[in-house]
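Hallway conversation turned thread

IA: we were arguing at lunch whether anyone had actually written out Fungal lipase-type domain-containing protein end to end. Turns out nobody had. So, for the record, here is the sequence (191 residues) and right after it the structure tokens. Reply here if something looks off.
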Amino acid sequence: DGLEDWLYNLQFPKDSVYPKCDGCKVEEGFHKSWVSLQDGVVAEVKRLLPLQQSPKLFITGHSLGAAQAALCAAELGASSHSLGIPVDAVYTYGQPRVGNSAFASFYMGGSRVSYRLTHHRDPVPHVPLQSMGFQHVGTEVFYDEDNDSYKVCDGSGEDSSCSNQYWAETSISDHLSYLHPPLTGEISRLC
């Protein structure tokens, strides 16, 4: 499946109960994807944190990886119902809506910094649809067409003066270009 197929599937999402908080639901495919990684990620974080003198945990991801990052952050440290591992910051790029408003409240219940970067007409931040009960998490930072300037959006997650102004006019190329380098090809060439 390519990005266009993935976006089409998210127009008709299935949600599943997120067992860590009352009333929380998350998009089923994102949840299954995170669950497939969860044991390994949690074990590695638990192994590495004690080895650091002043450990700091940052979580990041792009696209599906951004949805996984949000679920990871919720799992590790969003509230007392989680594993209680402190998450210092979450930075995501082109993140879709992961869960409902109860999940968004649970996620933001932690005392971490959470920025959700969006780029101009990227279609991914618009799915699954808000009208289907999905709500963004974190503070949106909206980058213009050329990635040269940005705006820190209001805290609602759904600021109509940021990426939501382009919900009907999207560009997959904007999803593949965050902070200038295109996210295609071999990433090692960019490092």
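OS: looked through it. The chain has one domain: 3-190.
IA: good, adding that to the notes. The chain is about 30% helix and 15% strand.
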